[in-house]
Fold this sequence. Notes:
By secondary structure, the protein is an all-alpha fold. It has helices at residues 2-27, 31-48, 51-58, 63-70, 85-96, 101-118, 121-129, 133-139. It contains 8 helices and no strands.
Amino acid sequence: MAGTTAGPVQRTVQKSYQWLHDLAADLSVDERTAWRFLRGYLQLLRDRLTVDEAAQLAAQLPHLLRGVFYEGFDPSRQPERIRDREAFLAALRTRAQLTDGEEAESVAAGVTRVLRRHITEGEFADLLAQLPAEIRGVLVPR
C-alpha cells in the first residue's frame, strides 16, 4: 500500500521543488526565501481573483502548491478590492515579508515569470484579464 502512494507524492514534491528552484534562480535567492515569496504571491493573487478563476488557476498548480494556495482561503471575501499598484505591492510586502516596495516589485515580476512558465498561456491570459491595468503592469512590466 505504501508503494502505491509514494509516486504521486514524490511527483508533486518534485514539481513544487522545480517551481521553487526556478524562482530562486530567477530572483537570485535561496529556496527558503523563494518559498516565502511564492506563498505570499499565490495567496494574494488568489484573493484578488474571482472564486472561479482562482479554482481554474489552482487546477494547474502542483498539489503541494495548491494546498499553499488555498491555505486560509475565505471565498466569501472574493475578490478583494485591491485596485491600484501601491495597494497590491503593500499587500505583497506584508504577505511575503518583504522589506520595501522595490523588492515587492521585483518579487511580483519574478513570481509572475515563473507562474507563466508553468501554467497554460490561456490560463495566464485569463488571470491577467481579471486584474486592473495598474496591477497587470506590476506583474508583467514592459
